[in-house]
Amino acid sequence: MTKPFHLAWFMEYAPANWVDTYDSRNERWSDPEFFVDFARALDRACFDYILVEDTSYIPNLHGGSMDVYLERSVGVPKGDPATLAGMMLEATENIVVCSTLSTNEYSPALLARMTSSMARLSDGRAGWNAVTGFDVRAMQNYGLDELPDHGLRYQRADEFSKEVKQTWEKIGGPRPVVAQAGASDAGRAFAAKHADTIVCSAGTPETMIEYRNDVRRRLVEEGRDPDACKVLFLMIPFVEETHEMGVAAFEAARRHRLEDPTLGMAIMSRHAGYDLSGYDLDAPIASFGIEAKGLKGLWSYIVAVSGNKTLRQVSAEEGILSLAGSPETVSQQMIDIMEEVGGDGFLLIPDDMTYRNVNRVADGLVPELQRRGAMRSTPRNGLLDAIAATTA
């Protein structure tokens, strides 16, 4: 019998894509109406949580210029996640909304007070996605001259999180959910200490198994129940009416990224913390010998699994799992992966966040997962129930 797994959604308070054919909201991208509709749709579809990503700077790594990031709406413009999260929580009943808040941009007391208040107002459905920052330009916006060393950032984040939790205990009331996306050794160690859910980029069942088993081992070493932190794997869904149409949509998107690698290259430069514009697009990425300055764990993973793939190919994929087909075939692919890996679920990150893509998941994929017993169909929040079961 299929074991139900968790489902969540990764999003930005930002335009979907300046040139998307199916999106008419770009001129008023900051209008919360779409995001509130979106949250209600996922709430009805029994998603466990929404993770609202954030970065607070304009990238300029690729080609030493901000142009490509502004032209392709990569990381800019972007609204404050906590402000939007409050509106999404008010409009929903069961889903958790996690705001991305950096340990370098807030004080522990301020972050604890804000997230605790949001949790109290939403009956415990507010969450904090804990990040340490990865770009010096963001640090400069908050009075820091340079980006601290990767290890030091996580050391500070550990101390910061302890202070936040102590403040939550003093305030009382529902405790916010803690999310984290640690790919590096330091990130995994941090998640094992503090997170209720962790997000991972893993393109194959084998890498998923390695990551999940490692996190569960670390949880035990920290004296926590191995089920206390749910591991969700990033996945880009291409869901269409038929399997053939879904595969065609995936192939068209990939072909476009290969033919016009600018967007993927700009994103990869941002991940690495290096300007990759001068590197040979058709040379194996593993041959570059780059040690990331930015998202260290993610970059190391991408290089490790790249094999002989070129920079052009890797930029088109970004190391993220894609599943394509009809609701029936994609749901079965998800079930097969979870049965091989052992859990815990997927964090969806669609190619473009539009009404069209949201509806194809909420009204197409989810009912099929529920019919197959792979996803809950009751209004109770599965993640909150799991947290309660492991902390009682």
- What is Rg? 20 Å
Q: What is the CATH superfamily label of the largest domain?
A: Luciferase-like domain
Count the strands? 9
What is the strand arrangement across the widest sheet? 1-2-3-4-5-6-7-9
Strand share of the residues? 5-15%
Based on the coordinates given, report the CATH architecture of the largest domain: Alpha-Beta Barrel
Low-confidence stretches: none
Can you give the helix content as a percent range?
40-55%
| Oligomer kind | single chain
- One letter per element, helices H and strands E, the order comes to EHEHHEHEHHEHEHEHHHHEHEHH
Please report the distance between the alpha carbons of the first and last residues: 28 Å
Structural class: alpha/beta
Which short descriptors sum up this protein?
9 strands; 392 residues; TIM Barrel; alpha/beta
Task: Write a brief caption for the model.
Helices cover about 45% and strands about 15% of the residues. The chain is α/β, with parallel strands linked by helices. An 8-stranded parallel barrel has the order 1-2-3-4-5-6-7-9, surrounded by 8 helices.
Describe what this molecule looks like in 3D.
By secondary structure, the chain is an alpha/beta fold. The protein has two domains: 6-244 and 322-391, Alpha-Beta Barrel (TIM Barrel), CATH 3.20.20.30; 246-316, no CATH class. It has 15 helices and nine strands. An eight-stranded parallel beta barrel has the order 1-2-3-4-5-6-7-9, surrounded by eight helices. Strand 3 (96-102), helix 4 (108-121) and strand 4 form a beta-alpha-beta unit. Helix 6 runs parallel beside helix 7. The longest helix is centred in the middle third of the chain and has 22 residues, at 150-171. It is globular and about 55 Å long. The model has no long low-confidence stretch (mean pLDDT 89).
